[in-house]
Amino acid sequence: MSDLPEIPTEDEIQALVDGRLDPARRAEVEAWLSENPDEAARVAELRDISGAVEQVYGHLLERPIPARFQNAAAPSMARSPVWRVAAMIVLVAMGAAGGWFANDAVGPGGDPNVNLARGAVKAHQMYAREVRHAVEVPASEEAHLVAWLSKRLDAPLRAPNLDVQGYRLVGGRLLPASDSGPAAQFMYEAESGERLTLYVEQNLTGGETAFRFTEYDDVSAFWWKDGPLAYVLIGRGGRDSLLTLARATYQELNP
Amino acid sequence: MPRRSFELMETHIPSLRRYALVLLRHDEPLADDLVQDCLERAMSRWHLWRRPGNLRGWLFTILHNIYVNDVARAVARPDVVEIQDYFPAMAVPPNQADRIRLREVTAAIQELPDTQRQTLLLVTMEGFSYDETADITGVPIGTVMSRLSRAREKVRAASWGETRENGRRIT
What we know:
The complex is a heterodimer.
Chain A: H1 10-17, H2 23-35, H3 37-57, H4 82-88, H5 99-102, H6 112-127, E1 137-138, H7 142-153, E2 167-176, E3 182-190, E4 195-202, E5 212-216, E6 219-226, E7 229-235, H8 238-253
Antiparallel strand pairs in A: 1-2, 2-3, 3-4, 4-7, 5-6, 6-7
Helix pairs in contact in A: 1-3, 2-3
Chain B: H1 2-10, H2 13-23, H3 28-44, H4 55-74, H5 96-111, H6 114-125, H7 130-137, H8 141-159
Helix pairs in contact in B: 2-3, 3-4, 4-7, 5-8, 6-8, 7-8
């Protein structure tokens, strides 16, 4: 070791700032810095950056973990680019819960998006409580059901498989759409008896939307538009659990 | 098995969420979606995790890849986030001068090019070694070092600039 410590490299300066320089070399670099005040000042400022990061972001580790992450423990359904869904998820609560539903000023001829969600929720409330006549065509005739509804809606429908999420297809039915024309309803049921419906109608206004969320009474709904069709997924259990189902549905529809 | 693997991952959720949140400039729903995707992907690829291995590094690698491949492209860059809201939660409330400096530093970090920002955050905020950071970001260690140096220089210039003599130090 000479009297004049070797000039530290930039990598060594970085390692010094991060406290990752071995002790011997660290002593040399610090000796060199004591002779070079400009560099010493720079190093102090670089260290202050780390201090600021800790001060501003340190507490973010203490946030409680939301319950939604428990869902990741369920068997995974990650098989298609999940992120396309995530990027779409701009949750927009449509006004106060129930507010727009209760507003009869928005009827036929009103906002078609509101009509879409309203029609779907009404259909859900009508049929989800039916025990014997919940569906028109049972899941045992799924191929026929899907072909029939596809023909009536003039678009290739699919009945998403939600087995992994714990919901099996009960069947489906044809309905009048919110504005005009036909709509389809697929019904699902969990072991608990909890029911979920997916309402599908033609996307007459066109365009693609993000997931939209709304609540009415005891049901929640996500609706979105994608290509020729508009979808509304309705169930109980709140936003987070329904969101997981909506994402799974979307992935099933866009494999 | 899924339950067990989730328990192992669970301890890393707070730091994954923090990294995602800062990466996505405090868009909390989007950040949590990113973490959830990361966890789901890790679950589905659990057999690929080499044990004994660095689970935390592996999870960050997955999160990094989802971010780079899917999110960074999908998410249009928003305006720099107002970080004022994040101050009240800090253990020691900074005085006014320090507060301004903290804002300058964090704003400058958010202004960095993505690769430099990721590198700086992985090293300083998450405490990953240079080797681990190279693994996570999929680049040679030399690239990590140069990104780190450039990132810090930019933040320093933006936060201290020519006013170094007058500026107060944050601690």
